[in-house]
Design a protein that fits this description.
mainly alpha; about 75% helix; about 475 residues
Length: about 475
């Protein structure tokens, strides 16, 4: 009894500390200690192995995905320091109009995350520009937060085929599938999340206008609305040049997969350099997207003279940008690693596997609860794949279907108040849970859950 109380108490503590804005690394460690002292597990093993170096250890995760985080953050720096991201966003504003500010922010974030930029970096890169745009359109800042989360934290991370996101890469690495697993299911889920999200944001924007709810406390954000975001104050690169690094990254990631799909094994069976490169690109699920991002960095440095002279500093700052999101995510995963060693979690897994539900629904519940426990889609997905995936494969679920549904499901209940990304975006934008979490919850929890259930229904009906 005390063991289960400890598990739920630790999770509750983690959520409360996150709501109060406490450091997520300290919070994860403290919550882990609560689990350890209320369960008959070794303190030394829990901290040295389960939390740090185990299969779900913080350092194990950080070591495995460090290069991907670092290259994504470097690319984000290149796009931000060169003002390429600003140029793209202003081009979208010119094409779509000021009244489409929320569309612009969503699309800009989606382009960046789909090309591999780390979510945390996208938030830092887009927020100053988004703030200027909503100031011009007098849109509440809570809706800017919603647009950023829609574009950077939903369909481009879990659903869109080919995305080099951590979630998609984790599933691909664990299941032996590729980043384009079950593309039709991903496209359906993307349409639902994007369509419902934009509908919600636009409905809220119109309601805010009727209720005279506009942007407040703009002066408090003066430091964020810096002169670099103002088109009249800076020489922005033309959008046609600014978008080239994005297309280079996407091209590098997609081309080997497309060619492999067309030519099959003959593409990688040769001894020539091209065949060896294609073999490398299609087998290095984590490293190849990282290399693609770094190639995008080099292209950006060659194109944008403004950052070419300080290339080492820009890339170094980008690498530094990757540390905090990587360690934050790793710490939460480490908490999950401790939780998975308890008898309570073992009973929880057994219950999910024996519950009288169709396998796909049972899998959805399993992933959702795992993600909610650790407050991380990457962490929850990692836990599920390490502890339960084989059981569901044995029930006859195809690996590509499991990949896509599990990945989408991981991006639902992960966004509870203790989620590191939620805490980060609220901190960066100066908002509180009370002010903005309702919009975050609808966009990052409700709609992803609906999309996951929809594709489960699609599979049940058509497969």
């Amino acid at each position: 009894m005390i063991e289960n109380i400890g598990l739920f108490g630790a999770l509750f503590l983690l959520i409360v500390l996150a709501l109060r804005g406490r450091n997520i690394i300290f919070s994860a460690l403290l919550a882990s200690l609560v689990v350890i002292v209320t369960n008959p597990i070794s303190l030394a093993d829990s901290l040295n192995q389960y939390f740090i170096f185990g299969k779900l250890g913080a350092f194990s995760f950080a070591g495995k995905f460090f290069i991907l985080f670092a290259c994504g953050a470097m690319f984000g720096r290149v796009m931000g320091e060169s003002k390429a991201a600003t140029s793209i966003a202003f081009a979208l504003a010119d094409k779509l109009g000021a009244q489409r500010t929320l569309w612009i922010v969503t699309i800009a974030c989606a382009l960046l995350t789909y090309s591999g930029v780390v979510v945390f970096v996208v938030i830092f890169a887009i927020y100053p520009l988004g703030l200027k745009l909503i100031e011009q359109a007098n849109i509440p800042k809570r809706l800017l937060v919603g647009a950023i989360t829609l574009g950077s934290g939903t369909f481009t991370l879990t659903a869109l085929p080919g995305t080099p996101s951590i979630q998609n890469v984790i599933a691909s690495s664990a299941l032996g599938t590729d980043l384009f697993a079950a593309p039709l299911l991903g496209i359906i889920a993307t349409i639902i999340m994007f369509g419902a999200g934009i509908w919600y944001l636009e409905t809220q924007r119109k309601a805010a206008q009727i209720n005279n709810e506009g942007l407040v406390n703009v002066a408090n954000d003066a430091s964020s609305t810096s002169k670099e975001t103002l088109s009249e104050s800076v020489n922005l690169p033309h959008w046609s040049l600014a978008i080239i690094p994005l297309f280079v990254v996407i091209f590098c990631i997609l081309t080997p997969r497309i060619l492999s799909g067309i030519y099959g094994a003959e593409l990688t069976n040769g001894d020539d350099t091209f065949s060896q490169l294609m073999t490398f690109a299609t087998t290095q699920i984590i490293l190849w997207p990282s290399i693609s991002l770094f190639i995008g960095c080099i292209v950006g440095l060659l194109i944008f003279k403004s950052i070419r002279v300080q290339a080492v500093k820009v890339l170094g700052d980008g690498t530094q940008d990757s540390i905090l999101p990587l360690i934050n995510t790793a710490a939460v995963i480490g908490f999950g690693g401790v939780v998975t060693q308890t008898q309570g979690f073992a009973d929880f897994v057994q219950f999910l596997l024996t519950i009288d539900l169709p396998p796909l629904l049972s899998m959805f519940v399993s992933v959702s609860l795992s993600s909610s426990i650790v407050g991380s889609s990457a962490g929850g997905l990692q836990i599920f794949l390490q502890t339960m995936a084989e059981s569901y494969l044995a029930l006859g679920i195809p690996a590509d279907v499991l990949h896509r549904i599990a990945t989408i499901a991981s991006g639902g209940f992960d966004s509870l108040p203790h989620c590191g990304a939620v805490v980060a975006i609220l901190t960066i934008t100066g908002m509180t849970h009370k002010q903005a979490y309702k919009d975050i919850f609808v966009i990052t929890v409700v709609f992803p859950v609906i999309s996951a259930l929809a594709i489960i229904g699609w599979v049940a009906f058509f497969y």
